[in-house]
Amino acid sequence: MKSPYEKMMIARNIARPNFYSFVKAVFDDFLELHGDRYYGDDSAIAGGLAHLEGRSVTVIGTVKGNSTNENIQRNFGMPSPEGYRKALRLMQQAEKFKRPVICLIDTPGAYPGVGAEKRGQAEAIAKNLYHMMSIKTPAISVITGEGGSGGALALAVSNKVYMLENAVYSVISANGFASILWKDAKREKEAAEIMKMTAGDLLGFGVIDKIIPEHPEGAHVSPHITFEALKKELSEDLEELSRLTPDEIYRSKYDKFRSFGIYEEY
Question: Which end of the chain is more exposed for a tag (fewer CB within 10 A), N or C?
Fold first, then answer.
């Protein structure tokens, strides 16, 4: 059985299937759309129209590269505000035309550069959280690799949230956790062990709904295992969610996220 640190390293493997790999294997007729209609296009987030088993859907996701050059082009999967605004534009378009939204997430977090902050990174993420909670069309998010902080959560406020078996999902990276808590980034392995960031941990807490199987050494070893399992789960859950009214879709999502955590009233 893999340790949390080992799973985290598998999730970061550069050969791991990226957004376009999943789109090609799971969906049909993908038509990519570009730009946020405000500033520009962000190559760290891609999205567009597709079909899943004959059903029209909107697919959105963060994009890592499978080589150093691709990662530089995609900013290592770290989106800027225009990427989140593009994602929001596509979600609102999907709601208008009653298309389900599927988000594929693999990011260490939102890009923290000065330019991104000047262009409203925090506001862009906050607006995604607000509006994604409010849209009344079915939404499913899948953590395919790393799910880092608000940069991942901005695409994960959905009716259903899946994780691949070796994916990780946390409020901060293990490196950042170690740097802040112990002032020692070299204790990343120790941090990963205590952060409860694996799919098994998060399923137990009720943060996610399903674990998608993959090869024990990672989805890049036998990707068809993961592609077939994901396609099956997406099809079944979209069929179930499609039976709900728009208000029921909203309410189920609202109740899901309101149920997180423990609190007491005095």
Answer: C
Q: What is the mean pLDDT of the segment spanning 245-264? A: 90
Contact 133, 88 (CB under 8 A): no
Distances (CA, A) of 129 to 48, 133, 143, 156, 223: 20, 6, 16, 8, 31
Q: How confident is the model over 211-241, as pLDDT tens digits?
A: 999 999 999 999 999 999 999 999 999 999 9
Which alpha helices (DSSP H) does the chain contain, by range? 4-11, 19-26, 68-73, 81-96, 114-118, 121-134, 149-153, 174-181, 188-194, 199-205, 223-241, 246-258
Cβ pair 45, 79 in contact under 8 A: yes
* Residues 214, 226: Cα–Cα separation, whole Å: 5
Is the pLDDT score of 157 beyond 90? yes
Rama region for 166: left / alpha / beta (φ>0; ψ in -120 to 50; rest): alpha
Distances in Å between the alpha carbon of 99 and those of 34, 139, 165, 219?
18, 9, 27, 28
Rounded to two decimals, the pTM is 0.93
Contact assessment for residue 146 and residue 168, using Cβ atoms and an 8 Å cutoff: yes
Per-residue model confidence as pLDDT tens digits over 16-44? 999 999 999 999 999 999 998 989 999 99
- Answer yes or no: are the C-beta atoms of 158 and 101 closer than 8 Å: yes
Q: Give the closest residue to 127 by CA, choosing from 79, 171, 82, 85.
A: 85
Place 261 in a pLDDT band, splitting at 50, 70 and 90. confident
CATH numbers and ranges of domains, the chain: 4-253 (3.90.226.10)
